[in-house]
Amino acid sequence: MRDKIGLKCTECGDINYTTTKNKKTHTEKFEVRKYCKREKKHTLHKETKI
Questions:
Q1: pLDDT tens-place values along the chain, 50 residues long
Q2: How far apart are CA 33 and CA 25, in angstroms?
Q3: Which range marks the domain in which residue 25 is found?
Q4: Is 0.85 topped by the overall pTM?
């Protein structure tokens, strides 16, 4: 079963991206560097619930 997750910027706090993840096979929190429109640079985005 795939669950919807949001990717929240650690610097500004906005949820800039949404994606899905299989919680049975990937139990750890998802972290990735993505572009933040407010900061105008690549920042760390962490998984949050929608």
A1: 899 999 999 999 999 999 999 989 999 999 999 999 999 999 999 999 98
A2: 22
A3: 2-49
A4: yes
